[in-house]
Amino acid sequence: MSQLRFAAVNADGLLADLDLPPAAYRALLKLRVLSEAGGRITIDQASVGELLGLSRPSANAALRSLELAKIVRKVRNGVYQINAMLAGYNSPEDAVAAVNEMPSEDRLDAPDFIASYHRAVAAYQDQLAQQRKKRATQAAAKKAAALKRRGTLHAVG
Question: Cα–Cα distance between 49 and 63 in angstroms, integer?
């Protein structure tokens, strides 16, 4: 049986406005249920995928969306931290204290919170596009070098 937890805010409306992928919402709900008081959770991406019936790439994408939105932060492999404004606490006083201690740029009530998420998503997509372009360029160069080598080979006989 789970223990009753207190949260500093009800951010359901704000979370809905983010327009996260459905798997990200599911992952957030599961992480909140499984987290310790204060929002720390020890779980790896593969386990998140298993719990939600998602492939590993889909689980990774869901967690990445939560990270870009500053809702969940990866502390290290297998350890995540839920935003202090969404995490559950043992008392209302603990919840308020945690929110008061958090950096203002991580707060869900920051004026540009949703716009910040959309900028982070766009920057991440640009980064992925640049990586794809770099890999394609490298593959084309490798192919051209192989063709050049084949062109210089002569049959003996």
Answer: 10
Q: Where does residue 52 rank: exposed (0-12), middle (13-18), buried (19+ CB within 10 A)?
A: middle
Assigned token pair, 20: 């996260």
CB 89 within 8 A of CB 101: no
37, 88 Cβ separation under 8 angstroms: yes
pTM of the prediction? 0.78
Between β-strands 40-42 and 79-82, what pairing exists: parallel, antiparallel or unpaired?
antiparallel
Helix and strand numbers, DSSP H then E, in the chain: 6, 3
Averages of pLDDT over each 10 residues, the chain, 157 residues: 66 81 94 93 94 94 95 94 92 91 86 89 92 88 81 61
In this structure, the number of other CB atoms found within 10 A of the CB of residue 86 comes to: 22
Cα separation values, 44 from 20, 41, 75, 124, Å: 21, 9, 11, 22
Output the CA–CA distances (angstroms, integers) from residue 157 to 14, 151, 154, in the order listed. Answer: 76, 17, 10
Tokens encoding 133: 């372009």
